[in-house]
Give the backbone structure.
Amino acid sequence: MGYLETCQFVEREIKARGAGPAFPTGIGVGQVTAHYAPQDDDGSVFQESDLIKVDFGVHVDGYIADTAVSITFNPDYRLLLEAAERALGAAIDAAKREVRTGEIGREIYREASRCGFRTIENLTGHTLDRYIVHAGKSIPNIYVPGTQSLRKGDVFAIEPFITLRSAAGYVVDSSSQTIFSIIGRKKTGAAELDRFADTVWNERKTLPFTPRWYAEDFGRDKVDGILRKLIQRRIMRPYPTLVEASGSPVAQVEQTMALDEGGLVVLT
């Protein structure tokens, strides 16, 4: 199955259930860790040896649920995937009312280390708010002192990223940019730029999008040029594809949860 085909399938299913994608469906294979959304010209096909991450979100009227799974048919990655699942379980156990987010990171790191792996130190989970995927509080994958506490009413995603003990343990930007969002709505005076920005704003507000969604209406080549100009004007911002710095494979699992009067509720 192709990367693009997979994303289109996920996004169709979300819409068929009366919701919308909270952000473009992300595909990460091997060391590609986050923020890659295949475009219409992507002919990549999954291989049996791959370690695959599928990261997707759903929103209803701007309210977001965020989740991710890792999949492989390669037995070499079985223990890595198990470590990611165990780290998520440890994090959920720790996510109690008033707990500091750094303490959750400590449990993720401990469990990954216990399994013989390490975490990605510069990627985090996050709180969620209406039309905002990253809403202010970060939930690290390592211990960080002095962090904020989770409070009643918080909705948040915990997402351990686990890699080999021999890896660098952090991600870097690649040259690929396939996901974008609006920073703020302001007129440019250029009709085509304003029409594109208005279209995105009316459909997405500040939620991320991918050029593929607008290629038919605006033309694929034109979308790229429009985005460059809007980025230069600080109306749009890109999210570069993130890769593990040493080229090591990364597993990711993610669940969205909330703290309410009865305690922790896992939503995804």
